[in-house]
Amino acid sequence: MKRLLPKGLLMALKILIAVCGVSYLVVLGYGLAAHSGGEPSAMLQVANVKQGAMEITVACTGSLRAVGTVEVGTEVSGTIGKVLVDYNDRVLKGQVMAELDLELFESAEAEARAATMRAEALYRQALSELQRNQPLNEQGHLSDQEFLEHRTTLATTLADLQSSKAALAKARINLRKASILSPIDGTVIERQIEVGQTVAASYSTPTLFVLAEDLARMEIEADVDESDIGQIHQGQTVRFTVQAYPEQEFDGRVAQIRLNPAEVSNVVTYTVVVEAPNQQGLLLPGMTATADFVVEQVENALLVPNAALQYAARKAPGADGAAVVILGADGQTKRISVLAGLSDGVHTTVAASGLAEGMAVVTGEPTRERDSGGSLFSRLMPKPRGGRRP
Fold it and tell me: Considering Cα of 27, then 30, then 35, then 36, what sign does the dihedral take?
């Protein structure tokens, strides 16, 4: 039989086949070791222990208003003749802010003064008649019945005089109240009248101006849900923001918790009044504030993700107390019992010996990439760049 290949070439071909077989077995063994979880610690999901502050807050919204707000009205009816102040004007106590048309009030005062003068004249006349006829009555020249008429006339004119004086005083009061005076030192934050407008004070006092006593001190009336009101107390620290300055945070304190509840759509809320200093004048009445009531706060605490506590609980379901699993530099894991504290839903404060900032704690199981091929060889072969493996 004739040889198809030279002897040397055939030997080289055998050696090449042997080398390829050995290489395949090495690659196969490495792949099996990698897929069998020989180094699971290198594939665990981990996070670092942090150190920082943790706080629990109750969030709600409310509206700002000035402290010491006073509504100024009128006790008499009439037509507005003058408006002497405008929005944002500073006023002093007793300053005239507006005047009604004074003609009718001055006329009424003059009429009452004339009626009083007439009543005084009649009274003096009746008194003179009484004094002139009294000696005649004492001497018997004038009967008691006739003298009684003089006494009655004197009493009647005296009553008319007192009534006239009261009417004059009322007319003068109305004239004085036709000038609207400021009851406090403050700032005009609202004006509801114009010259020529008619105001009627028959049933209720109409509001003409609204004054703010001190815009350097503001209040927030926040609506707190009934489920959170138990965590609110007087003097509690509050942080809030307003839409006008979204990047700036303001501080306040709880001044009052009103016990009268409000119910809207079956939701019960309580009004909590928060003192808000406004020295810079940035806060304006009517602004909407988003407030956070600080319920609990801790500084310089160790923080671990909640997922780390959950992972440790899954690995030892029967164990008592909270724990975390730390991953050492050598790739070995170790379970450490901890004392859990505050939680914000993402992180929890913990205290434990042997736990320090920067340590790696396990938060989840190893992640394994799903293979698209069906054979072991296809899983071991590298994927070509720029496209899928056929």
Answer: positive
Burial 87-125 (b: 16+ CB within 10 A, else e): eebebeeeeebbbbbeebbeebbeebbebbeebeebbee
C-alpha–C-alpha distance, residues 312 and 349, integer Å: 16
Cα→Cα distances 353→248, 338, 341, Å: 39, 8, 15
pLDDT digits (tens, 9 = 90+) for 279-303: 888 999 989 999 999 998 888 889 9
CA distance 138 to 142: 8
Beta strands in the chain, from DSSP E residues, in sequence order: 45-48, 50-73, 78-83, 90-91, 96-100, 179-181, 186-191, 198-199, 207-225, 237-242, 245-264, 267-277, 288-305, 322-327, 333-343, 347-351, 360-364
Residues of the chain with pLDDT under 70: 1-10, 12-14, 18-42, 203, 367-390
Cα(207)–Cα(63) distance, integer angstroms: 22
